[in-house]
Structures are given as structure tokens and as C-alpha cells.
Amino acid sequence: MLVNALCAAALFLGGWQSTAPGADEVLARENQRISYLVERNYDRLAELLSPTLTYTHSSGVLDSREKLLGDLRSGQLIYRGLKHRDVQVRFVTPDVAILNGVSDIESSVGGQPQTTLLRFTIVYVKKGGVWLMEAWHAARRPAG
Fold first, then answer.
1. Residue 2 confidence (pLDDT) above 50
2. For domain 2-140, which CATH number applies: 1.10.10.10, 3.40.30.10, 3.40.605.10, 3.10.450.50?
3. What is the rounded distance in angstroms from the CA atom of residue 136 to the CA atom of residue 62?
4. With contact defined as beta carbons under 8 Å apart, do 34 and 82 qualify?
5. CB neighbours of residue 143 within 10 Å
6. Nearest to 13 by CA among 24, 22, 21
7. Among 2, 86, 105, 113, which residue has the fewest nearby CB atoms (within 10 Å)?
């Protein structure tokens, strides 16, 4: 499992831009989230998600934290690979970071494999000294 995680990490570390002071900490947290998602370590993933998370899929479906975790744990939604690039981080306050970038995702929904090309916005909020994902919003982007 560790070897798989390290191989997966090597796939999505490229393309990160961390020009804002403090961005490295937020990017490390996002990298951790991706690892747990792809490894299907949903208990650890849950620790990175805000209790008030909103997760807007590229289909337009809006999930709560509980709904997202339920779909992951049931196998209804499985992420097999996720590679971010051209990620930019900006801080609207010292405790709110917004990440923008593009991502290529290999998943299955209801047992059907999918490749999805996305443009995303992620909001991380520092709560109790810990960065938690507060919002995910994605839109499909054209191939190429």
C-alpha cells in the first residue's frame, strides 16, 4: 500500500505553484487529501474535511460531507487517479485559502469507469489551527 501511495503521489505532485507565503502547508494538505482519496482511506480523508463541507461535482450535483463520504464508503464513487496541475493558491485571509487549477480524474460512478477533465476551485479554512477542505467546485473542461 505504501509503495502504491508513493507512486500515486509522484503522479500528482507536478504543476503546483506555491508563490504565496504559507501555500506549501495548504498544498501539502491537498496532496494528503488526494492520497487518502485514491488509497480509499476514507477515515483519514474524513479528518481533512470540514463538517460544513460542500462538494459540487462537475455534473452539478451538490453533496454534503456525509453524502460524499457515504458514496465513497459504499463504492458508489471510486477515485482511481487524480492529477492536479497549474495549481495556484491565494489567501483571502490568513485562515482562508483558495486553490484553482485543472485536474484529470479517473473514477467510477455506479460501477461505470469515467475519465473526467476538470477545472476546479477548492477552499481550505484553518479551524483550530488545522487546514480543512471547506468547498470543492468543479466544471468539466474540453479535452486538449
1. no
2. 3.10.450.50
3. 10
4. yes
5. 7
6. 24
7. 2
